[in-house]
TrEMBL record:
The lineage of its organism: Bacteria, Bacillati, Bacillota, Bacilli, Bacillales. Gene3D superfamilies: Tetracycline Repressor, domain 2. Pfam families: TetR_C_6, TetR_N. Residues 31-50 bind DNA. It comes from Bacillus sonorensis. Keywords: DNA-binding, Repressor, Transcription, Transcription regulation. Residues 8-68 form the HTH tetR-type domain. This is HTH-type transcriptional regulator PksA.
Length: 195
């Protein structure tokens, strides 16, 4: 009896292999041969799933977006609005190994999207998702704030910049931007919004 292959699981396995190669060697060294080896597949079988590198990168990038969305959809929202907002925003930060791999891949894809127009729509989608989460966070905290005169647009931009900055700096300088620093900076900022 022939072996039944779950093609979607195989594609995810390949995309995760892309993330690992990026983690170990960078996007410039993300060759079909290295990805196939990491995924435990032959280079020929990879071409069955992804005929070219752009399609592989698009799928890998989309998988990052989908994983973040799935985590948010399955979140159990903690008690206070402050805690709920904080947990929402932590989904976009490299606070565990899975999110670290995703964020490293995401940053590599973002840089690549500057020269590869096929990647730009997904970059835009993810950035809009992060911005939307930041706006939701600010709106939620503004509703519960003692000082209701928060400039939601300005504070959304500040929070969006903070999330991007924390993510980037924690990957570039992990000794300096530890999980404790991420938590402390995010908590302090959210409290300044009335959390």
């Amino acid at each position: 009896m022939p072996k039944i292959v779950d093609h979607e699981k195989q594609k995810e396995k390949i995309a995760e292999a892309v993330w690992k190669v990026i983690h170990h060697e960078g996007l410039d060294h993300c060759t079909v041969r290295k990805i196939a080896k990491e995924a435990g597949l032959s280079p020929g079988s990879m071409r069955h799933y992804f005929p070219n590198q752009s399609q592989l990168l698009i799928y890998s990038m989309q998988l990052v977006t989908n994983r973040v969305k799935t985590r948010i959809e399955h979140m159990e929202w903690p008690g206070t609005p402050f805690e709920a907002v904080k947990q929402l925003l932590l989904q976009f930060l490299p606070v565990d190994e899975e999110r670290k791999l995703e964020m490293e891949a995401w940053l590599a894809f973002t840089a690549k999207s500057l020269s590869d127009p096929e990647l730009r729509p997904l970059r835009k989608e993810m950035n809009e998702g992060i911005y939307s989460a930041c706006k939701k966070a600010v709106d939620t905290l503004a509703q519960t704030a003692e000082k209701p005169d928060i400039d939601v647009r300005l504070e959304t931009e500040r929070l969006y910049a903070l999330i991007d900055g924390l993510a980037l700096h924690s990957l570039i300088e992990p000794e300096q931007i530890s999980l404790e620093v991420i938590d402390s900076v995010l908590t302090s900022h959210l409290k300044s919004l009335g959390g």
